[in-house]
């Protein structure tokens, strides 16, 4: 009769095997270094046999025959072995550091590249701290395994095999006796490994939570919020609780590891004592020589040491698998928005944009988030609501369309579909007749420029931020773009001019100045299509006219979709599209729509849509 099989263990073992195979994939480029490492370990193991054998020779042969020169030669051999061993140790350290650090760099680079390719939806759902924690803590956890564990497994196996071989040759009965304690090493290791895996998982999670709290609170906006709400004490308590949890888990792991290690040491001591006791009896009865017993006593520690090392390595390896699993979980995350096979470049775009029967719903967390990074990533946890439903809209090349609609109508959502920050659920968005999903992302994104309401600047100089759009732009081009965007005079007036560091912790630009800087960046990029999210905040007249002038330049000769908040922008647009309930409900010029006396006219009268400047 077939016994029922424990499939969970089989699956777990399969997962571990797959993980190990993938780890090996990352180790492949280091095959040569690993080979040198292994050879040097083998040589070191052989060399380690020299001292006990030297002692045996001296005791059993050289001393009884009073061969003084042989004694010197044997002592010299021990020195030579020690010298060679020292050299090998350095070679080994270099190899293991090279492989370990190399693996960290490779894993981090792969993770960075992967995370960059993940859809925007992933970033809207995942706290930054959770992502950086994977790149920092988990990667280091994974590396520790490879450098210390892998090295120790190999060296211990070699030491164990060579030592056992030597012992068996010397005296096989005592060797078997020494091995009788073997099960005591193997059996508890698995259980301890599992427990340490749990603790490690717990630690990683608390680390990620601490990281998230730090990245969210230690930026200008977060720090201001904490201060305004006077919640310093509360924040500190939450942080301290998390730090304490990591500490407690660390202490538990250390204690468990130490108790296990000490227990193994005791087992080894019992085995060694047995060799002394029974071996000495055999010497007394004349079965073996004193030299053999001394050599065996020296060798037996070289059996228990690697056995302890191997058992610990197994436990460490199990623990580090947790880190690898967490790293691979990110590397395996789906990339829904990427180049289709056979995607074509959008060459010399004219900028005809059209939305045909577009329905859009934000993807559920289960599709875009990583479960262990976000608690909401469970099926059914999202509101299933279409933001856009059967929407049609044309943006003919070179025209400006002002998009208006109440807050939450879906204006930003609609704009984000053009550059494929999200993909439509059904229907299509096309540029110059190409469905955007058939275009390469690089060429698509080169064709579309965005100026957000509150544009993001990196913590770099103004010049570097501008050149982000075009790294090879000359100084003259940068200045020309800034002059056109009406921001050059402001920059020139700063103490360090274009070298002034801006962004989160740099010089603070006003909202209007930031938007003009973003427009200068857009001019450097020179895209065929522009998406502009007008600032809602009220600007003074001077700023207002400067912004208007720079926007006029930015939109000239391009297809523009302006999420409009100002009457002046709407009036000057070629066409106005009114978005309500996920559809374009009215479209025409300002005068046409006022004459129509529909939603636009009503909302205009109610002052809901636009700032009347
Ligand atoms: P506003 O003028 O206030 O900026 P909007 O017209 O640009 O609003 P959108 O930001 O496009 O509106 O939002 C449309 C709807 O989609 C809203 O109900 C919003 O809650 C929802 N929404 C926006 N972003 C996301 C997201 N990342 N995930 C899920 N739902 C979202």
Describe the secondary-structure layout.
Elements: H1 7-27, H2 31-48, H3 50-62, H4 68-117, H5 120-125, H6 128-170, H7 172-179, H8 183-217, H9 220-228, H10 232-284, H11 290-331, E1 353-360, H12 365-368, E2 388-395, E3 400-404, H13 411-418, E4 426-431, E5 434-435, H14 441-447, E6 448-451, H15 462-467, H16 475-484, H17 488-492, H18 511-525, E7 529-533, H19 541-555, E8 559-563, H20 567-572, E9 575-580, E10 583-588, H21 590-596, H22 599-606
Parallel strand pairs: 3-8, 3-9, 6-7, 7-8
Antiparallel strand pairs: 1-2, 1-4, 4-5, 9-10
Helix pairs in contact: 1-11, 2-4, 2-6, 3-4, 3-11, 4-6, 6-7, 6-8, 6-11, 7-10, 8-10, 8-11, 10-11, 16-18, 18-19
The structure holds adenosine-5'-triphosphate.
Protein described:
With 613 residues, the chain is α/β, with parallel strands linked by helices. Helices cover 63% and strands 9% of the residues. It contains 22 helices and ten strands. It has helices spanning 7-27, 31-48, 50-62, 68-117, 120-125, 128-170, 172-179, 183-217, 220-228, 232-284, 290-331, 365-368, 411-418, 441-447, 462-467, 475-484, 488-492, 511-525, 541-555, 567-572, 590-596, 599-606; strands at residues 353-360, 388-395, 400-404, 426-431, 434-435, 448-451, 529-533, 559-563, 575-580, 583-588. Strand 9 (575-580) and strand 10 form a beta hairpin. The radius of gyration is 35 Å and the shape is elongated. Mean pLDDT is 85; it is low at 1-10. Bound molecules: adenosine-5'-triphosphate (ATP). Adenosine-5'-triphosphate (ATP) binds at residues 124, 362, 387, 405, 407-413.
């Amino acid at each position: 009769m077939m016994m029922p099989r424990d499939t969970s263990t089989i699956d777990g073992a399969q997962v571990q095997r797959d993980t190990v195979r993938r780890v090996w994939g990352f180790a492949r480029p280091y095959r040569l270094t690993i080979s040198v490492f292994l050879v040097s370990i083998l040589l070191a193991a052989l060399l380690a046999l020299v001292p006990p054998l030297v002692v045996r020779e001296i005791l059993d042969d050289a001393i009884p025959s009073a061969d003084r020169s042989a004694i010197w030669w044997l002592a010299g051999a021990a020195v030579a072995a020690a010298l060679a061993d020292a050299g090998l140790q350095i070679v080994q350290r270099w190899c293991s550091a090279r492989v370990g650090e190399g693996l960290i760099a490779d894993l981090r680079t792969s993770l960075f590249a992967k995370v960059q390719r993940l859809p925007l939806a992933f970033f809207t759902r995942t706290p930054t701290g959770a992502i950086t924690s994977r790149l920092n803590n988990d990667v280091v956890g994974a590396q520790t395994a490879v450098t210390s564990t892998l090295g120790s497994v190999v060296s211990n196996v070699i030491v164990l095999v060579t030592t056992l071989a030597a012992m068996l040759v010397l005296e096989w009965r005592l060797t078997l006796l020494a091995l009788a304690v073997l099960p005591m090493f193997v059996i508890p290791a698995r259980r301890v490994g599992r427990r340490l895996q749990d603790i490690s998982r717990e630690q990683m999670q608390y680390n990620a939570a601490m990281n998230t709290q730090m990245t969210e609170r230690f930026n200008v906006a977060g720090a201001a919020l904490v201060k305004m709400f006077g919640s310093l004490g509360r924040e500190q308590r939450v942080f301290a609780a998390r730090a304490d949890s990591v500490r407690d888990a660390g202490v538990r792991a250390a204690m468990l590891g130490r108790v296990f290690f000490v227990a193994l040491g005791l087992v080894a001591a019992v085995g060694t004592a047995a060799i002394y006791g029974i071996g000495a009896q055999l010497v007394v009865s004349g079965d073996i020589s004193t030299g053999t017993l001394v050599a065996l006593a020296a060798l037996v520690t070289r059996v228990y040491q690697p056995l302890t090392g191997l058992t610990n390595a197994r436990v460490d390896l199990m623990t580090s698998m947790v880190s690898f699993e967490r790293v691979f979980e990110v590397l395996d995350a789906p990339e829904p928005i990427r180049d289709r096979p056979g995607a074509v470049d959008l060459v010399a775009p004219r900028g005809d944009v059209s939305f045909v029967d577009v329905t859009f719903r934000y993807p559920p967390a289960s599709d875009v988030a990583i479960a262990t990074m976000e608690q909401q990533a469970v099926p059914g946890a999202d509101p299933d609501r279409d933001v856009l439903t059967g929407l049609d809209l044309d943006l003919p090349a070179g025209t400006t369309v002002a998009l208006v609609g109440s807050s939450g109508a879906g204006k930003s959502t609609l704009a984000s579909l053009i550059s494929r920050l999200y993909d439509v659920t059904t229907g299509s968005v096309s540029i110059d007749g190409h469905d955007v999903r058939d275009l390469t992302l690089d060429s698509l994104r080169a064709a579309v420029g965005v100026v957000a309401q509150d544009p993001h600047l990196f913590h770099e100089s103004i010049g570097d931020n501008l050149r982000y759009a075009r790294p090879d732009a000359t100084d003259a081009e940068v200045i020309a773009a800034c002059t056109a965007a009406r921001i050059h005079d402001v920059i020139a007036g700063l103490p360090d001019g274009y070298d002034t560091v801006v962004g989160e912790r740099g010089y603070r630009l006003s909202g209007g100045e930031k938007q003009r800087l973003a427009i200068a960046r857009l001019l450097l990029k020179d895209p065929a299509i522009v998406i502009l999210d007008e600032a809602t905040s009220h600007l003074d007249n001077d700023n207002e006219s400067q912004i208007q002038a720079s926007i006029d330049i930015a939109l000239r000769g391009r297809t523009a979709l302006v999420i409009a908040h100002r009457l002046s922008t709407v009036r000057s647009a070629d066409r106005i599209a009114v978005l309500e309930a996920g559809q374009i409900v009215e479209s025409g010029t300002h005068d046409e729509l006022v004459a129509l006396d529909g939603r636009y006219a009503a909302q205009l009268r109610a002052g809901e849509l636009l700032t009347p400047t």
